[in-house]
Amino acid sequence: MSIQVRNVQKQFGDFVALNDVSLDFAEGELTALLGPSGCGKTTLLRIIAGLERADSGQVVLSGQDASATHVRQRNVGFVFQHYALFKHMTVFENVAFGLRVKPRAERPSEAKIQEKVKSLLQLVQLDWLGDRYPSQLSGGQRQRIALARALAVEPRVLLLDEPFGALDAKVRKELRRWLRRLHDELHVTSVFVTHDQEEALEVADQVVLMNKGTVEQFGTPEAVYNHPATPFVFGFLGNVNLFHGRLEVGDSGGLLHTGDSVLPVIGSGHETAGDAVAYVRPHDLDLERYAPGTDGIAVTLRRALTLGPVAQLELEREDNQDVIEVALPLERFRHQGFREGELLAVRPRQLRVFNRGQAVQEQGAST
Ligand SMILES: Nc1ncnc2c1ncn2[C@@H]1O[C@H](COP(=O)(O)OP(=O)(O)O)[C@@H](O)[C@H]1O
Ligand SMILES: [Mg+2]
């Protein structure tokens, strides 16, 4: 089932929780709703489910306006952060629950229920736990059972609100891979809420970046990571260096005057000359030994962290003492033989620039 959200507006008192949100969730895709706490993810999910009403705007399910459709008729499965398994029921009965409470006319026979629950427990790879009670399971197992229970009624949409949020990092990582494989088997249109960037980028077909009740960007993980549409997205998806300066716009591109340096930039074409902030990821910076006349920003290497395959370098600008982070493949770092305290030159390979008003506004929003 496809989901369209059209111009949805939602306020709690004076507080605008969702401001003119429009999104298209394609049939069969797994989409992550990603954003900081309080940005409106849960509210949007509840409106899609029909648990909450929008003040204005529409939710369209499979091409039909769902505004008048009750939650129960929307055929939506839910999994929440805090597992809501029934404590007094076995795992088997928890999964069977949605089938047993169906109206008599739609309820499957007992034999069918047994068969269905068994196959769901196999699907979530916990068929050996059917007789246990929720208190006898680990957190990760409980969330897999919660998912099996949500799937029992064959929902056309699956909504997951930080389903792994309460679990520790290692289990969470296992479960998100598992969820991805499960989705590849079932292809139920799914919306997955998370505030964890890595989780969203690793699991989803599409990512929606939300901030303060609005959609900042909607795209594939590759697109949002490599081509952030806004300063907020840039800052939210990974480490980033900021270069403050003044933008000069010419026919063949822009130049950023920052401190004592002038750097060529790529922009969206909408930037205007004047105060600007450039964004660049640590792995998009080149580093070489400084020599008079070298292009780039003169820096001193303050600290080198060489734990993994990538050297994390902390550099201090000579002109304004700002810190710059650079990530260099360890091989290359070793080969160059850079030492702490040495004077180097940093040159961005890619520099995305935003006008200052926009950048300040959005950064403020992200804190
Ligand atoms: N029922 C409610 N009454 C008042 N404020 C609410 C209610 N639900 C959510 N909010 C507010 O709306 C904002 C968005 O909440 P929510 O959608 O839960 O954010 P998220 O899931 O992204 O953390 C928050 O500031 C929250 O305090
Ligand atoms: Mg939430």
From TrEMBL:
One term of GO molecular function: ATP hydrolysis activity
Name the keywords, alphabetized.
Answer: ATP-binding, Cell inner membrane, Cell membrane, Membrane, Nucleotide-binding, Sulfate transport, Translocase, Transport
Record flagged with keyword DNA-binding: no
Q: Using the record's annotation, list all stretches that form the ABC transporter domain.
A: 3-237
Q: Does the keyword Lyase apply?
A: no
GO cellular component, alphabetical, reads: ATP-binding cassette (ABC) transporter complex
| InterPro entries from the UniProt entry | AAA+_ATPase (IPR003593), ABC_SmlMolc_Importer (IPR050093), ABC_transporter-like_ATP-bd (IPR003439), ABC_transporter-like_CS (IPR017871), CysA_C (IPR041193), Mo/tungstate-bd_C_term_dom (IPR008995), P-loop_NTPase (IPR027417), Sulph_transpt1 (IPR005666)
Q: Which PANTHER family match?
A: SPERMIDINE/PUTRESCINE IMPORT ATP-BINDING PROTEIN POTA, SPERMIDINE_PUTRESCINE IMPORT ATP-BINDING PROTEIN POTA
Record-given protein name: Sulfate transport system ATP-binding protein
Taxonomic classification, please? Answer: Bacteria, Pseudomonadati, Pseudomonadota, Betaproteobacteria, Burkholderiales
